[in-house]
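> Could you send the Putative metalloprotease prediction when you get a chance?

Sure thing. Input:
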Amino acid sequence: MTPRRTSHVRPFLSVLSAVLVVLLAAACSSEFPRRYPDHTGSDGSASASPRSFGQKFEEDVELARTLSERFWQQRFEAAGRAYRPIQGFQAYSGEGGPACGEQPAVPENAFYCPLGHFVAYDEAWMRKLYENGGDGAVYVIIPHELGHAVQAQLMSDFGLNVQRELQADCYAGAALRGMIDSGSIEAEAGDDEELLANLAAAGDPTDEWLRPDAHGTPAQRQQAFAGGYDSGADAC
Ligand SMILES: [Zn+2]
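Output:
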């Protein structure tokens, strides 16, 4: 993803959704670690697309946050509701993250805390994902966490954690599509592979759908994200 600058418009990758569908047909047979670990070397599809436009990690992080929130703000307004922006967006290091109620932050993670209505992320971990696997990491993780912030505002209720997580993936796909359609960012060649690789790396190794921390298998997470990307948030 790259911020759109009027001075040099690059070819718009309009086939992203078509490519997503094609890639989704490919089975993910590797054993993926949980959450969002560094997947370099464990997944041949992790591509490093060139970031040759002066983009920086910090810029992408801020863009992913502000554009996701803009997307939801507009959707809430269109529905006659007020969107409540998150109260904090905090980078942390290792064990030094903010607690969410009784729950301490853990290294190598990102999370939304409904108690303080904030998002926090382990910066060095996310930067490593970004540098190793491309900017898709940032555009999956942050919109996903903001998807949880939207769920909290809508007071969405779920029987299973995996449903909550897959809807957040779906919301993330919808938000990313909204960012691209609005012209704020452009998809680059290789972004689709990056996004899918990041989702796959964050999937559960097995279909543990009853577990309280279940996030969905790689294929389920990719399908949820692609569903939001292709069909919008209403389909989530
Ligand atoms: Zn989540």
